[in-house]
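hey so i finally got around to running both of the ones u sent me last week. sorry it took forever, my laptop kept dying halfway thru and i had to restart like 3 times lol. anyway pasting them below in the order u listed, first the sequence line then the structure token line for each. didnt double check formatting much so if smth looks off just lmk and ill redo it

first one:
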Amino acid sequence: MVAADWPGVDPEWSREIDVASTSAADEPGAVRRWHLLDNGAQLSRRGLTPAGTLLCVHGNPTWSYLWRTLLAAGSDPAHPWRVVAVDQLDMGFSERTGTFRRLADRINDLGDLTAALGLDGPVVTVGHDWGGVISLGWAVAHPQQLAGVVLTNTAVHQPSGAHIPPALRLALHPAVHRWGTTTSDAFLRVTHSLAHPPLAAEVRSAFMAPYRGADRRTGVGNFVADIPADASHPSFPALSRVAEGVRGLRVPALMLWGPRDPIFSDRYLKDLIGRLPHAKVHRFEGAGHLVAEDRDIAAPVFEWLAERGQDSGHGLQRTDAPTGGPTLEHAAEPLEPLENGTGVPGTGVPPLWAPLTALAAGPAAGDTAVAEMAADGSVARSLSWRELEQNVAALAAGLQEAGVGHCSRVSLMVPPGVDLTVVLYACLRLGAVVIVADAGLGTRGLSRAVNGATPDFLIGIDKALAAASVLGWSGRRISVRDLPAARRRLLRVETSLAALGRRGASPSPELLCHETAPVPDAPAAVLFTSGSTGPAKGVLYTHRQLAAMRDTVAATLGIRPGSRLVAGFAPFALLGPALGAVSVTPAMDVTLPRTLTARALADAAAAIDATVIFASPAALRNVLATQGNLSRAGHETLGRVELLLSAGAPVPEPLLAEVQRLLPRASLHTPYGMTEALPVTDISLEQIRAAEADAADGTVAGAGNGVCVGWPVHDARVAVIPLATDGTTPGNDPVTDAGVTGEILVSAPHVKEAYDRLWLTQRESVRTAGWHRTGDVGHLDAAGRLWVEGRLAHVVTAPDTAVTPVGAEQAIERLDDVGLAAVVGVGPSGTQAVVAVVETVPPARRAGPAAPQLAGRVRDAARQAGISVSAVLAVPSQPTDIRHNAKIDRTRLSRWASKVLAGGRPGTP
């Protein structure tokens, strides 16, 4: 045993200690030798007083080496903590006892060790794999010393009727067990291969060091054999005691998780959240079983300790109730009775569906409320306000009978239209949390979103249910339509919305859905971002925030009861009934906005005599491209529209000018917002032209360089954190000075509550107190208008300057032979070259360097925007996000451009 050969380990940490054993696995009076990595003596030698102790327990087949980054961080004089990372008996470099030690023995062993060390608190346990169970067993048994709990991929409960993970089933198989875990080192090698990215050779060697030779691996095999696969296993009672004991822990908790884990999947995380509902949770997308190797967990652990006030040395604050505001991990407050359907007494917050309920009871009850179109231009289905209210109430009763209740997570895989409207509002009335992740994320992105959200129920069309079966999505399954018995069994569908609606329409007295509403600050929905700048994030809204969104849209855009809305964008299709607006979904694939045609738009508008249209820029482009197919009646219908809204990506003035000719009476607005806050600002076409005129003649300070998105909406505020030359926003003081470029900050009642199970992301987004940091960059002008210059992640860090992309892109797109343009950085941060990638008109035959004449014009255009372009590349079409078909994937283009400029084959970006 040579500590100097373990990368990342200070030899001073390595120590051994003899401990008197009280375990039933040992003879009375037995003494066992333990190996530890312990920085306590080092802290003492330096004269540092630790704030407490992190007691770190590894799983199988790792050892204390797993926690080396915590030891290093705890040794920092800025935040000293004693870190005791144990090697469990028969594991690591601790004694090989020659006994079979079960879960109860190992929990007892850990207690013997801490007694010998004299750990009297405050102690924060840290566990991984089966070390998580053992650390929790110690925590439950030592409440007076316990100050907090940190968990990485682990489990304390096996769901009834569920199989243990396949990898563990294989390791337990009699034909494999001894050879795979003890005779050979296969189990170790397989475990080490789960790292993402792969372990460095020297790190892998360090992990293997204590287990060289079959006689050193007996504990590895015994650990596997002690997995309580079912209730008949000898260790099952001990596991159950720990699982139930965890529910009583009232100390701060942190869970850091790697979703790419074939052993401890998200279903185990969900179970732990249910037992520790106050825990802070962060899922590191792309990380796996060895999350402590895949990601830096030391920084978040010590940030969490500091956040709890630990660096003062006063000890962790106990948590007797969930704190820090509601999250989906928090047990929300119970339902409160409605008062005539107007809201929760004393809160002044009408529920989201209040306008729907009022219209169903008023003179407009028989009028159309929601409709959806067929491909032939006819109305496929529609419901009046009264019918919508009745269907929502009936389905709510049926869903309640099926087990959907307060805070149940319900994933809705239903296209916008009548069915989605009914089930959405039925779930919200029950206090369930609706999860909305549309197919526009793509198969991989959608699967990642659903698995991370771990729904209790999945309601979907046949195609979505088939995907759930193939991809293993969690949740009890409910189909939209009645399915044949064979199909239902194949897809493991329990029932259908149709059957539940019928059941709820004429329920027996015991099935009546109680007229209740969630309290305003209870969780209501998780909406997923587009994933255009990384994996899609789940965004949590409370009922209060959804209601604030409704009220902001109504106050800003004037969409109120009596408005008639064509919703070519899914969020507005769902918001329509909450606004009291008649809503229709056109015949299109809402996951592909560019599938909206002029004829489909006109047919939908004619069906309800529309006054408002909401469509994305990509949808509008296709509407203009297909307007030649419009009949005279279609032109007349669109000519009666009063308001057009377009958002999801920048909308250039020339596109709006063309749309204005098609909708001559409409006021054209381009609200700016994001999944986390919709909307933030608003501006009309006339106001865009005025802003561009101000930019051209220089009469208004700060006007220009980017897309003008207007003024903050009702009850919203906007500011920026100034951008540094290295492309970061290191400050924390919001400014509203004209012309100062920085990260855009938003404050409004309808800003999201949190990112779902992304504690670190949420923490970063609110590090400026009272503001949401959007990740967009831009500036305000002297007239108070916001100009968006791009995403913070896409800022090009050229030598001594930071280049925001949108201003130059707009200038380049004014060229006749350029469609969409993207400005990206190539090279190391701080010395990046500015590269323009242009989509040519007509499309280029192949991607690669642009023709010299075009390249010259592009450089000249960019120079007018104050940007010096080093290289110009041409592509037949720009890679865009799936949801909006309009946001250019600049990150992908940057990687592609780097390869091309390095002499690689261009290929397709």
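and the second one:
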Amino acid sequence: MALSSLFLFPDKAVSMNSTAKNHVKGIIGAIVDSSSRKGQEAKVAMEIARDDFNHQTNQTLILHVINSHGETIRAARAAKYLINKEGVQAILGPQTWEEASTVAESCSQNSHTIPILSLADATPPWATRRWPFLIQASLSHHAQMKAVAAVVQSWGWHRVIVIYEDTDSTANGLIHLSDALREKGAEISHFVALSPFNALSDDLEKLKKGQCRVFVVHSSLPLALRLFETAKEMKMMEKDYVWITTDSTTSLVHSINHSSMSSMQGVLGIRSYFPEPWAHSQDFYLKFRKKFKSEYSEEENHEPGIFALQAYDATRAVAAALIQEGNREGQHLLEKISSSDFKGLSGNVKFVDRKLPPAQVFQIVNVIGRSDREHGFWTDEKGFSETIDERAAYSPSMEKLGLVMWPGGPWYTPKGWTLPTMAKTLRIGVPNGSLTNRFVNVEYDPSTNNYSFKGFSIDVFKKTVNRLPYYLPYEFIPWGGNYTSLVEQVHLKNFDAAVGDIAIIYSRYKYVEFTHPHTESGLVMVVPVQSQSSNNSWLFTKPFTKSMWVLTAVINLYNGFVIWMIERNHCPELKGSILNQLGTLLWFAFATSFSLQGEMLHSNLSRIATLVWLFVILIISQSYTASLTSMLTVQGLQPKVADIGTLKTSNAKIGYSTKSFVLNYLVDVLHFNRNDVKNYSTTEGYAQALRTGEIAAAFLEVPVAKLFIAKYCKSFIMAGPTFRVGGYGFAFPKGTLMLPDMDEALLNVSESGVLRELENSLTAAEKCVEVEWDNKNVSLSPSTFLVLFILTGSVSTVALAIFVLRAKWETGKIMFKHTTIRMLILAVKIQLGHQKNRFSRRVSDIECPRNPPNT
């Protein structure tokens, strides 16, 4: 080795077995940061891989390892030295993206295309297009961000703060983390960039004053340890705090000494999963511990981690390729490593004697006591499980894995946020001067100098707070300004929230965020009613549909025909000419609709049919009367103004509430003339103005309009369409972490029926009930009385059938009697004729003997 090389790389490690018996099969270079735990594990693992390869194949593999000290320029120089001076056929090991990209660019500028296997955990996709000879030899850790997001979702947290090391290696994963959290319904409220030169206490102090208590740490192990030590000193490793570490920290937790571990109690970590080496390769585990302890005796823990295993497998992969390709270099060796033995970019790492699990499997660990305890696994597209095998049961929630010890213990679930340290009790502004005191009623008691707060919106808020999974202290403070100014006070931090009949509109969203509405949304027009007689000459036909009228007439005629048939032999007046019988039939048909006519009926069959039909017609007539009465009543209550078009064309005056948003909507959206719009502060003022004609219509929000109509139901009515705006909600500052919990609690209040009970009590004191009518749905159809029609038709048909059968039977009996008599008469006649003939002959014999005597 040249003397200059020794000065340039004084800690360069050169390993070469004796070449007496074996020829050199390949030369590999390695660039590691031996000042870091990752670099130390990688160096030891590479040397073990080289020794195993030489021993198992009876070949000679030479390994040159250079310490870069984590400096990119030093790494680039090392790469040039290894290629130009040592003649390496491949380079292993840049463990950060900064070093890997610098080495690749340096080789590209010097026209070197030997394979470079990067052990960095975040290689951008474009890197392989720019440097085709650069191969990612470690599993991409971008998938771990999905695991972090799944953990956040499991516990119902919606906001997190990301603390990351300000380097290219860590910054590359932040976009993936942001996207993964957004898919799970969570957001990153702040990014905090750290560097080794930062005063961590200043950054943590700012975070401590905020509300969010869920922190995701994405940094190297040394900086993470400094962070946790500072956080512990500032009492940020206690109850209500959540700390989640990514793979760059968690995969090295096994190397932390006991004093540093005490600063991380309750930390939850995500790390790449791989089978424990002593369970699959006891030989590798023992060799590693022995060699690592001898070279780095100052380290307390000597177990290998994921970085050691990756370095071992990468070395074996290159060695295997060199065996098959011989001394061929460049493109041939690159293709061999990329296509056959190594598939690092796809996440499936297949080497000579080991297959690492795919990048989508991560292990969840919980730092408890002096070690990190396995808490389960997370697999992409499957979720959480306690084990990784064929019998594993998966769940979308981490809660199924059991209790976690969070900072501050004991076992409980932090809510993920807290009230600001400057405000222990929420100061909630309440509007004083609502249009109706049913929603918000603020009263002042001079004897106690206190205010009382009542009303529907106040009750809903109290019920909602009671459903929160934690105690929330608050106090109401009256506000005498308009509603928009109240919302601005929340934005200015003078109030922590605002509660009342505050309409949810777009212009207020630039100041605050709202909960889901707790009332119906909309804006309606209220106008006076006018008594109006109906000029519809055919209104009396409206209670029944056409088919109902036709069916009723048919059944009437049919029943009249049945009664006429049965009674015609008993009543002389039912006989006569055809015209007379037809008139009588029609009279029977309709007369039975109003009276039983029992004294005129002689047959029990006709009486039964008439009785059933009278029962049916009684129900139908009563229904007709009720329907017609309702129609006549509703016809008398018509709105004076039917639509806003009439108001505009007549330049009529309209009213709105003084403190509501309605004015801008009327002018900007509905395009009313501002001079035609007047404001009122009470419902009584609206009513008086509408009665006197001062205004032709009033525009009210739906909840207020319903109360107004309930109170003045005989005088006013809602008319025209409902404009979908507004709805009352509770206002909170933008970015508040309480909002999701409030929405969930409000949904609980609604689904449990409590909100419905409050709505019913809102108008319970009003005796007058709002009446709404739709003439299209008034008319009664045959389906309403189908059973009754079938009943009367069936009874009449049975009666007619019995009558016909009985008539035939009577006719048959009479015909039989007549036939018998005729036969008897005929027999008598025949007998009498026979006797007459005999008598005649006798007379003849006397008068004229047949054989007269001879004369």
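quick thing i noticed on the 2nd:
The domain at 419-515+735-765 is CATH 3.40.190.10 (D-Maltodextrin-Binding Protein; domain 2).
anyway thats it, ttyl
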